[in-house]
Structures are given as C-alpha cells and as structure tokens.
Specification:
This protein has four helices and two strands. The chain is mainly alpha-helical. It has a single domain (4-75), classed as 434 Repressor (Amino-terminal Domain) (Orthogonal Bundle), CATH 1.10.260.40. Strand 1 and strand 2 (72-75) form a beta hairpin. The longest helix is centred in the middle third of the chain and has 13 residues, at 46-58.
C-alpha cells in the first residue's frame, strides 16, 4: 500500500497534475484530492489505492520507506 505523501511526491516527480493522475487511474480528481493530504495509508477504497499504486509503478515510480515514519519515492528513469 502507499501513503498520501507518496502519491503527491510521485506525481511531482512525474510532472503530472492531479487531473492527469486521476484520468490515468480512472478515478475522479475529487477522490485523489481526498487521499493526497492524508498521512499514512489513506482511508478509502483499497482498490482505488491499488490502482493509483499500479499506475505510478507502471511509469517508473518505486515506493520506499515506512508508510508513516519515512515514506519515499524514487523515479526509475529508463533509458
């Protein structure tokens, strides 16, 4: 699972707007905006969180660290 902070950071690394990520995940911007400000694992639909995680990983994001203490992301830039 991923944290709200990781979602925001991953989106920033990819240079995506909230709307771009929401569109790629098939969710509403309102849903994304509800998840991003939450610390730790966002309270919400697990399938939606898994969709966000899958889309971000598919675009080179690697999730690191502890979800609460030190959530992180790395962008694996493929040549």
């Amino acid at each position: 699972m991923i944290s709200g902070r990781q979602i925001r950071a991953a989106r920033a690394l990819l240079g995506w707007s909230g709307q771009e990520l929401a569109d790629k995940c098939g969710i509403s911007l309102k849903t994304l905006r509800r998840y991003e400000p939450q610390n730790g694992i966002p309270v919400g639909n697990t399938k939606v969180l898994e969709s966000i995680e899958t889309v971000l990983e598919g675009h080179g994001i690697i999730f690191t660290g502890d979800l609460v203490k030190d959530p992180g992301v790395i962008l694996n830039q493929k040549d």
